[in-house]
Amino acid sequence: MTKKWVYLFSEGNRDMADLLGGKGAGLAEMTNAGLPVPPGFTCTTEACLAYFDEGKDFPEGMWDQVLDAMKQVEAETGKGFGDPENPLLVSVRSGARVSMPGMMDTVLNVGLNPETLVGMAELANNERFAYDSYRRLISMFGRIVKRLDGALFERRLDEYKAQTKGGRDTDLTVDMLKQICEDFKVIYRENLGEEFPDDVWEQLRQAIRAVFDSWFGPNATTYRRINKMSDDWGTGVNICTMVFGNMGEDSGTGVAFTRDPNTGEKKLYGEYLQNAQGEDVVAGIRTPIRIAELQRLNPEIYQQFAEVAQMLERHYRDMQDVEFTVERGKLWILQTRSGKRTARAAIKIAVDMANEGLITREEAVNRVEPDQVDVMLHPMFDLDAKREAQDRGDLIATGLNASPGAATGIAVFDSERAMVQAEAGEDVILVRPETSPDDVGGMLLSKGVLTQHGGATSHAAVVARGNNLPCVAGCESISVDEDEAQFTINSRVVKEGDTISIDGTTGEVFVGAIPTIDIDLAKEQELAMLLRWADEIRTLGVYCNADYPDDAERGREFGAEGIGLCRTEHMFFEPQVRADVVKMILAKTDEERAKVLDRILPVQRADFEGIFEAMDGLPVIIRLLDAPMHEFLPSREQLIEEVTRLRCVGEDPDELKEKAALLETVESMSEINPMMGLRSVRAAIIKSGITEMQVRAILEAGCRQAKKGVDVHAEIMIPLVSHVNELEHQYNVVKSVASEIIKKEGVEIDYKFGTMIETPRGALTANELAEYAEFFSFGTNDLTQMAFGYSRDDAEGKFLLQYVEQKILPVNPFQTLDQEGVGQLVSHAVEGGRATRPDIEVGICGEHGGDADSIDFFHRVGLHYVSCSPYRVPVARLAAAQAKLRNG
Amino acid sequence: MTKKWVYLFSEGNRDMADLLGGKGAGLAEMTNAGLPVPPGFTCTTEACLAYFDEGKDFPEGMWDQVLDAMKQVEAETGKGFGDPENPLLVSVRSGARVSMPGMMDTVLNVGLNPETLVGMAELANNERFAYDSYRRLISMFGRIVKRLDGALFERRLDEYKAQTKGGRDTDLTVDMLKQICEDFKVIYRENLGEEFPDDVWEQLRQAIRAVFDSWFGPNATTYRRINKMSDDWGTGVNICTMVFGNMGEDSGTGVAFTRDPNTGEKKLYGEYLQNAQGEDVVAGIRTPIRIAELQRLNPEIYQQFAEVAQMLERHYRDMQDVEFTVERGKLWILQTRSGKRTARAAIKIAVDMANEGLITREEAVNRVEPDQVDVMLHPMFDLDAKREAQDRGDLIATGLNASPGAATGIAVFDSERAMVQAEAGEDVILVRPETSPDDVGGMLLSKGVLTQHGGATSHAAVVARGNNLPCVAGCESISVDEDEAQFTINSRVVKEGDTISIDGTTGEVFVGAIPTIDIDLAKEQELAMLLRWADEIRTLGVYCNADYPDDAERGREFGAEGIGLCRTEHMFFEPQVRADVVKMILAKTDEERAKVLDRILPVQRADFEGIFEAMDGLPVIIRLLDAPMHEFLPSREQLIEEVTRLRCVGEDPDELKEKAALLETVESMSEINPMMGLRSVRAAIIKSGITEMQVRAILEAGCRQAKKGVDVHAEIMIPLVSHVNELEHQYNVVKSVASEIIKKEGVEIDYKFGTMIETPRGALTANELAEYAEFFSFGTNDLTQMAFGYSRDDAEGKFLLQYVEQKILPVNPFQTLDQEGVGQLVSHAVEGGRATRPDIEVGICGEHGGDADSIDFFHRVGLHYVSCSPYRVPVARLAAAQAKLRNG
Q: What percent of chain B has pLDDT over 70?
């Protein structure tokens, strides 16, 4: 018995995509679901492979099976292939296992010849339509099957169009179309040395061959190589009855979503074009009507479609994007697939469907991409207004999409002026070559930030993301001139005060204003419901990174169950202590340092009091001072400039002396690779007193709040530890200060001692660190930097993005955790920590804490929580639930 | 039966140090070897612990055992404890498992009382000696046993001494000593409210208690804590017959080595003092004679000692440092231990002893510390001259001992001037704030290098070590002023041209000249023999790091079996291509870059030709360009200064414009953490053409040499790889260029493709890298930097040395590999590499390749070779042999 090479649509289902191709399996599924699909059948992918094995010959028995299947189709449609009275026309389409859009070939209207043509014209009572179909067949056949240059036909068609008034396809007269068909046959003959085949079976045979051949066409081959798809899959060929929407007023064609893809509302959404084929809609020849109007125009068809749409949703259990044709009052479904939708719609549809009982809550949670939640939380440009701006040429540059959201405001080139302007009520976009901690004040009052240098994890980007501030970073094509307070791009100059708009979601920079659309989270009931469902599912905790009481409150609103990272750097930048911090760094003796630390203490304590209050009942993990010391000092480069200038002018010897001395100090503290220099625990050990002061501030704040009835859970975290002895040293300091304060204050508060795991060596020796650490928090940013040997400040601007582009790296490892390399360190450390201390608390507070793929890994590796910026908390809640559903 | 708490010396041996303490076990060993040791016994460490367990009471049976043992000693000596006729005196000394020098207590002359005193005086025919011994007993007993302040006795003694002419101990008359004894007893009674005990058994009991008690004395407790010794060890107590060298002309005391500890020559070496006790030698009251003179003075005793010395060497199979006393013509050995010796002596003694058949060659190889070989290879200051310089106050500062060896010359503060001076025949010490690749020319012509900043792995240190150039780095106490060409320390100014001397072995900096002693390696036959033996034993290969043909030749002379690291950076700094290198970096297009690379090619090729020739028949591993790009550009800081000055002066707008443009470029390329920025394989991928040029130079050079009959084994190594795709990319480039050249040149040469493993991620994914790499070379410097998160340029100056001092780190991980952390990465990578490619070649080319402890690890982990600077090759050969002997 020969193999079964051909399946009627009624013989397949959606699980047979490997054999029938995706499209074939889909048509089969719809057919069996009782949907009105034009009858047809599929030649299998195996047939395709066998065809190539046979040296491009149909495998044994295949053509006979095609003939059998055609008989079935003729029976079902009551039409005859090549029958002049009631001709059957078919389309011949490719369909691989996975869609390869535009890569492979299709031939329509197969079955037309001078005889059936006449039958068609009569049947349709439309000679024009028949000749139009015929000329399409000839050119498509010539192009696809015979590899003729399509331009040969196009040029001829254009010549005829040029003779009409309107110049459009529809302006061609029937006579012209007749002539065009004749002309096309001549072109065909002259270029190929053979006649266009009148034999409809010959047409069919050649069309099938052509589709098979297209599997190894240059486009398809390249596409597969890039997308790592196998040549051994083969393509199916779908032969399907042609239906025509252009058979009169009771015909038409349309595309519709079963729900509104913008809002998610449960109503049909789409377009319908009367008396037209699908190509006509694409060509934009006439304006289609909205699907809702179809109800008025043709209530019967509307009703038919509405019912089918509901069937489709029930069958596929998702919102569908449906292509359909109405041929003389009869509805045909040509294609259906899950519809693309906005973030908002995705959420509403998922929640609604669960509430309707169509899907489970778990499925609803799985239906929304975590990043769609993120998009929901940020203002966007009005899409139409943005498109107009683009059309006007206002899009002047594109940088890194460093922090999502859109913003419009006046460009200001200095942090302090930005603060002044913002306080005066202006919307400000802070534009800087790059930002430093000194700019934070200005950033926080701005609507958005634009920097010339720095990557997606540059200072600007991190601060912006942490504060939900739109940011375009590393926009290297602009040239910022601080002194002139302007930036230039090509010859265009944007001066301070000029209005610009930035889109941190896309990285685009515009001149002029573009209106934005904000979202009020409190009103987003579906989102809230979805996240509640996610919370019920997930086992991974979600904390937030928060440095200020405000952040802490916001994080809590967004569902954070604790603070995973409270950085204390900002406390050293606060204006009332800034001068003392410099003195602290420059102190020559422990005593001198102790004196200034005493003045810094109350400021820190007050900050901690606010945070503990905001997080009443929840854990607060506080990282002790982490920044390199020189960050608190004036810039070396600027001092060189000043000293040189003063020396040159020679007018103010006292100032020169002072600046020169300061420069010398700054130079003695400057480091070649500050990221790996004197900072964090190293500074704490070398410069005694800092840890003592910070622990004192934390514990005193905790005790004071505890006395007021606040439920305080402080966790003190030592950064950048790479050797257990560093941790032991700090453990002794912390324990001694803490017990002194608890004794003095007379109130017992719950506090833990722990460490960041952010150096490879820390991860490798985590078993030892766990002797002192009651908790670990992975600093995956630094861990990624050191594992790869990438300085994030430099890499993203200098090579990392090119690496991703050139596919040297699959993703930016600062955005999505490198599970293969850095992940080994994480899982090794988790195991090591647990070996020593089985109940050790493990979490992650790097940027990866808000990234869905990374969260999946953290769930699998068994962390207790992820911590991310407040605005990423909802994203993380959803991603954590999906991780649980995916991995159990 | 009660436990055995007491062991006669004849009952123990040297393996019983845990039970008897080190000293007790040593005395027992000597006794059983038939050496003339004064009879005695040991109370065990278990007795000590039991004593504390009993609340400071002797455990049951111990005192009885002491009494029994004393009977044995009395029998052996023919003396009686407390016997006025022939009194036995004993010393009571502590002795823990491990020596704790000066930490614990000793009581001498136990057994003297008014009656035995008289007997002693008569026996010795020396009243003075008897009373002198008695006053020593009283004061020592008061101080040690009763914890009286020793100053009470010292002051009284000083009063008497003040009454004499000479003012020394020996000037005291017998009457004075008698009076002193009486006075001491009064002090004792008045301060303690009890009489000094006349009962000799009471003296003994209390002395033993006192030694036990000293185990938990504050000094001993602190010492143990610092040295991580256990409190649970306890101390033994050794009760030993006193012998007296001060019993007349036929008595004396001495210390001697069985061979010359300076040269290793086989002859007794030491000092002897007639009619004196050991303390007198220490006190320096009289000048002892050299041991050789004893032969003349008392041939009989000399002969006795010479025989015993030989016995000791045979017994202990090592050169011994012996303390002995002659009491009335009878030789007593009080202590023997392996003698300390110079590097030279260590080598000669080991080789001689093996040749004498006293030890095996393996033992000889084990007897020499690898670092002793290193010391041998470097010039040293003449020790006397150095001491004189210190006494004169010429030692002005101490920095890091960055590269061993001593040098004297004139201070020069600029690399180019250093070259000029050196070429004019001056000995130059280059003094710089820190060095950069620009300084290499000047460094190589100098006799030594002194830098203010930078650690033991700073540029200066690495280059200096690689070129056997004495270097003191990170000498932060001096302040170098380049403009003034001088440095200051405190108020002292050293100007260009002043003579200074530096000792890179110790880190010392002197003003003025100090003569140095050089060593001619060719004449060091014992060293050569030792190294040949080492080569027979070791299985680990030893390669050298060599960038120039000269280095390669030197490495080969020192025994290197290949070049493990040929850095190509210097080829980009060579004067004839320097300008092109800058153009290469600034090139805006691949074409522009290709053009300048073509001009660099021949220079590199010529270099490689020389190296291949020098290493005929041996492998040469060449690392492609590794340095950060900006290292080839002018300094940013300097440009800021120049631009500011030009702007200020306003005279030369053209120069200003040019410099400002250059500054802008430099700034656009500057990196915050260049160590982790655009360099190495990253630059090779981003800036195409560089790898192509280098591979072309290597292969063309290889082919040309091969045609001349040179046996070329080139290995091309990609640096800083952290992802397999980087390696794949470079693999394709290398293979394609190489096969083109091999085809063109028409000669087949042996070349391999491999990678550095120097990022943690590279190590973690070594299994993947081995898909392309035929060899791995560990860059343990960078691996250490990234595992710890230490920038070596910054860490050593800023905190690392303090870390080592404070014992946060056990050693400097840049000198000795951190086996616990970084070692995990190394062994993981070796396993991963072998899993993929079982015959992969693995080696190490970081600085650790010349460090003995690290070499032991590399042997254990199964590397094929270590590579180090040429001058460390002998060290590595020895260390590799020792590793084999240690681990098999």
A: 98
Q: What pLDDT is stored for residue A282 in this prediction?
A: 58
Judged by CB atoms closer than 8 Å, whether chains meet at B676 and A672 is answered as no
- Report the distance separating Cα A480 and Cα A503, nearest Å: 19
- Determine the Cα–Cα distance for residues A168 and A152; give it in Å rounded to an integer: 18
Helices (H), A538-650: 549-557, 569-573, 575-586, 590-614, 636-649
Q: Does A522 touch chain B (CB under 8 A)?
A: no
* Chain A CB within 8 Å of residue B488 CB: no
Residue B720: pLDDT over 90: yes
Q: Do A723 and B760 touch (CB under 8 A)?
A: no
Rg (CA), chain B: 34
Taking the C-alpha atoms of residue B800 and residue A241, their distance in angstroms, rounded to an integer, is: 80
Chain A CB within 8 Å of residue B866 CB: no
Q: Residue A1: what pLDDT?
A: 64
Residues 6+ apart with CB under 8 A from B662: B634, B639
Annotated catalytic residue, options A378, A459, A713, A828: A459
| Distance of alpha carbon A346 from alpha carbon A263, whole angstroms | 8
Asked if B435 and B369 count as a contact pair (C-beta separation under 8 A), the reply is no
Helix and strand numbers (H, E) in chain B are: 37, 31
As given in the structure block, the two tokens for residue A61 are 């028995």
**What confidence score (pLDDT) does residue A124 get?**
79
Residues of B identified as active-site:
459, 845
| CA–CA distance, B764 with B758 (Å, rounded to integer) | 11
A459 is catalytic: yes
The pLDDT mean for chain B works out to: 91
Shortest CA distance from B790: residue in chain A: A676
* Interatomic CA distance for residues A714 and A750, integer angstroms: 7
Residue B379's pLDDT is what?
Answer: 83
Rounded Cα distance, A429 and A431, in Å: 6
B694 three-class SS: helix
Mean pLDDT value of segment B618-632: 91
Distance between CA B608 and CA B567 in Å, rounded?
11
pLDDT at B563: 97
Mean pLDDT, residues A311-329 taken together? 92
State which residue of chain A sits closest to B649, comparing Cα positions: A648
Of the pLDDT bands very low, low, confident and very high (cuts 50, 70, 90), residue A284 is low
Confidence of residue B682 (pLDDT cuts 50, 70, 90): very high
User: Average pLDDT in the B643-648 region?
Assistant: 90
The DSSP bridge pattern shows strands B90-96 and B106-110 to be antiparallel
CB-based contact B789:A786 (threshold 8 Å): yes
Q: What is the mean pLDDT of chain A?
A: 91
CA neighbor of B88 nearest in space, from B38, B126, B138? B38
- A845 in catalytic set: yes
pLDDT band at A281 (very low <50, low <70, confident <90, very high): low
Contact criterion met (CB < 8 Å) for A675 and B791: yes
- The sign of the CA dihedral A360, A366, A368, A373 is positive
Work out the average pLDDT over B856-866. 97
pLDDT in tens, A211-265: 999 999 888 888 888 777 888 899 999 999 999 887 878 889 998 999 998 889 9
Does A790 contact B at CB distance below 8 Å?
Answer: yes
Q: Say whether A637 and B641 touch across the interface (CB within 8 A).
A: no
- The CB density around residue B728, as the number of other CB atoms within 10 Å, is 16
Burial class of residue A417 (count of CB atoms within 10 Å of its CB; 0-12, 13-18, 19+) = middle
Residue among A3, A37, A839 nearest A13 (CA): A37
Residue A457 reports pLDDT greater than 80: no
* Smallest CA–CA distance from B798 into chain A, residue: A678
Maximum Cα interatomic distance, chain A, rounded to a whole number of Å: 108
Pairing mode of beta strands A252-257, A320-327? antiparallel
